[in-house]
# Entry
Amino acid sequence: MEESMKSPLLSICIATYNRAEYIGQTLDSIIPQLTNEVEVLVVDGASTDTTEEVMHTYVNKSNRLRYIRLAQKGGVDQDYDTSVELAQGEMCWLFTDDDLLKPGAVAAVIAAIKSGHGLIVVNAEMRNRDLSVTHQHRRIEMYGDKIYATNEMENLFIDALDYLSFIGGVVIRRSVWLSREREVYIGTEFIHVGVIFQKPLPETATIIAEPYITIRYGNAQWESRRFEIWMFNWPKLVWSFQNISTRARLEVSYKEPWRKFRVLVYQRSVSNYSVQLYRQYLSTKQANVLWKFCAFHIGFLPKWICIGLCNIYFFFKGVSLPYPKN
# Structure
């Protein structure tokens, strides 16, 4: 059989919705890196903008690119799951539809796959929306690749989970994905995290420390739901992993972060919290009158005051102020 007819080693799976403005740049960063070992699969959740037209121009340019338009939008979790089901590669890179790959990214991942790893986490830098300013040079502060044995899932959880709220750095064996529980994670926005950590992985995992991905910060389609996601959805998922110790889960997220005044002040400082959100999410929570009084009034504080309070807090904690925060 000719090499071009072989099943690919890697499928770069992109779930997209209404990204006509960005997906061309994403594909421009990927296509020059493709070889006969790699395919790109774009699953479109019934975009209502010109994504379909943009995609057809790229399909005509590359025979390593497949485009599948769904009849209706399934949501980010469902559409990524569909992309893995439709992929032809042994490994699936769950890449995003508005971010970029740096030169050498695909080659580095192929090398890691051939080393026998069943999960590869690719580090990233973070820039502003138009990519003109770098906010963070390495999302994972790691300067050498690290390998995790199958009995070291907890170490991987601690080292990488904060970063793994971003799906675009995940490369996972397709057969492992398909063999695991996925339905329960549909709607969490983080199906990949559920698939990875629901039980030990059957093969080693590795983090590629070099930031081969450029993240376009502040461009997530669920920006308006940030408070709900980070205060409720994310902690619920983190604390659902009973095979991970309480100590490790606490390193990633409080069980109910919204109960911490310093968390609410921080959320207010990055415009993720307001009086309206208090009324929507917190006013009916079981808590004493003093807590409700303080939580309500934090929603009124000017942003500059909250930033100042956060600066003071993080100064005495001896860590850098995490702005911007995913």
Notes: The radius of gyration is 20 Å.
